[in-house]
TrEMBL record:
NCBIfam families: peptide-methionine (R)-S-oxide reductase MsrB. It catalyses: L-methionyl-[protein] + [thioredoxin]-disulfide + H2O = L-methionyl-(R)-S-oxide-[protein] + [thioredoxin]-dithiol. It comes from Sphingomonas kaistensis. InterPro entries: Met_Sox_Rdtase_MsrB, Met_Sox_Rdtase_MsrB_dom, Mss4-like_sf. The active site is at 125 (nucleophile). This is Peptide methionine sulfoxide reductase MsrB. Zn(2+) binds at residues 53, 56, 102, 105.
Length: 137
């Protein structure tokens, strides 16, 4: 799936990824799947902290950029750093979209849309299962 080779500290084979992630996360992060809307455990999370990649632990989004978009998936106005994610043109399912991937492990996170409230006008619509949350200490 990945356009980038994994680093030595990440799984090297699809079976190693499956063993590390489990079936749902593997389907989303490595097979470009998506969770059903309104089912993600981080959707309603309002705690202060950091959202990191569920595949490799890379820092992706801060809680102060998260907002309720009404889409059914966690939404963010911007990544923690512009190079934390990569954007890939996605013309699957008969639509033109922009896929968002983790820049470190190339795991599929979700999509970005030009209808957000932030200064850049972007909505990062991210699968909850592709993320882990680290509460602020």
């Amino acid at each position: 799936m990945s356009d980038q080779p994994p680093t030595k500290d990440m799984p090297q084979t699809e079976q190693e990824w499956l063993d590390k992630l489990g079936p749902e996360r593997f389907n989303i992060l490595r097979r470009h799947g998506t969770e059903r809307a309104w089912t993600g455990e981080l959707l309603g999370n309002k705690a202060a902290g950091e959202y990191v990649c569920g595949g490799c632990g890379a820092s992706l989004f801060e809680s102060d950029t998260k907002y309720d978009s009404g889409s059914g998936w966690p939404s963010f106005t911007a990544p923690v750093e512009s190079d934390a994610v990569t954007n890939i043109e996605d013309n699957s399912l008969g639509m033109q979209r922009v896929e968002v991937r983790c820049a470190k492990c190339a795991g599929h996170l979700g999509h970005v849309f030009p209808d957000g409230p932030g200064p850049e006008g972007l909505r990062y619509c991210i699968n909850s299962a592709s993320l882990d949350f680290k509460p602020k200490e």
